[in-house]
Amino acid sequence: MFKLFRYIQAVLFISLFPIHRIEANILSKYTSLDKTIRVKVSFNSPSAQNDSMHRLVLLKTIKGSFKDFSIDNLGNLFLILPTNQIKKLDNNFDSVAVFNDTKRFGDLFTIDVSNPLKVLAFYKDFSTILMLDRQLNIKNVIDLRQQNIFQVAAISQSNDNNIWLFDENEYKLKKMDNYGKLIMETPDFRLLFNDSHAFIPKCIIDNNNLLYLYHPTVGWKVFDYYGGFKTQYLFQNWNDVSVVDGFLKGHDQNNFFAERPKDLRSYKLTPNVDLKKAKKILVKQNIYYFLTQDGIEIYNSL
């Protein structure tokens, strides 16, 4: 109670004297307080939130019917066709590789291209992960069913060249090696969060030795590299989330959002392009990629 009293005193003081650096330092000490309270208070600082119009200029359109896509750190574009074929385009949009083994493993759920030298293709219905090389040739097939893993919500490459996944049957975050051997796992999320309807992430992001798990109705949960729960952030109803330079990023049907909890920086950008037309939006180095009904639209940010 004493700490809470001192916290309220600090907020009252800051509201009269907007010393922004002091505000961020004081609020960051009270990580046990509800995140929505801390974010709301931080907006008292004129520099804490930056709302602005965001002008996007169309650079190119790749016509076609695609059910998904991704982009690696080298600017290569991976297009997933309705037939589950994968096409790789270089940063000049020239075709450089094709994956044609479309029938053996069922429907392609997602791909992870965070490591340009090792592409992961995840077939959720068969609990199978394919490891592909840069030319999209199969290097290894991981049948998770051999490890008694039959339902996986999400996968991600780890920074130490292994694989993260979330086991829906056991409600556990697990790390596997490249041959499917279990390296580590967390406790059951139902026990960890004291919730019979446990948090099941829609995506897993490995960034700067932390794991970020996201679900739109719950927000972010952050773990260390040993599977220890660290904190959570209640930024909800975002799509196509990412983590860049400490910023949690995403968008809704109208705006792009970026939140950096460590110093309470907050941005909301309203673009001149209708976000509702996009089935998926990815951003790489200030280039915006929109998956639409007619293909991929590529925009530059001014």
Q: What does this protein look like?
A:
This protein has 302 residues and is mainly β. It has 2 domains: 1-47; 48-301, TolB, C-terminal domain (Neuraminidase, 6 Propeller), CATH 2.120.10. It has helices at residues 2-16, 20-28, 35-42, 189-192; strands at residues 49-54, 56-63, 68-71, 77-80, 86-89, 95-99, 110-115, 118-123, 128-132, 138-143, 152-157, 163-167, 172-176, 182-185, 203-207, 210-215, 219-224, 229-233, 239-244, 247-251, 256-260, 265-271, 280-284, 287-292, 295-301. Strands 1-22-21-20-19 form a 5-stranded mixed β-sheet, with no helix packed on it. Strands 2-25-24-23 form a 4-stranded antiparallel β-sheet, with no helix packed on it. It has a 4-stranded antiparallel β-sheet with strand order 3-4-5-6, with no helix packed on it. Helix 1 (2-16) runs antiparallel to helix 2. It is globular and about 50 Å long. The N and C termini lie far apart (48 Å).
Layout of strands and helices, then pairs:
Elements: H1 2-16, H2 20-28, H3 35-42, E1 49-54, E2 56-63, E3 68-71, E4 77-80, E5 86-89, E6 95-99, E7 110-115, E8 118-123, E9 128-132, E10 138-143, E11 152-157, E12 163-167, E13 172-176, E14 182-185, H4 189-192, E15 203-207, E16 210-215, E17 219-224, E18 229-233, E19 239-244, E20 247-251, E21 256-260, E22 265-271, E23 280-284, E24 287-292, E25 295-301
Parallel strand pairs: 1-22
Antiparallel strand pairs: 2-25, 3-4, 4-5, 5-6, 7-8, 8-9, 9-10, 11-12, 12-13, 13-14, 15-16, 16-17, 17-18, 19-20, 20-21, 21-22, 23-24, 24-25
Helix pairs in contact: 1-2
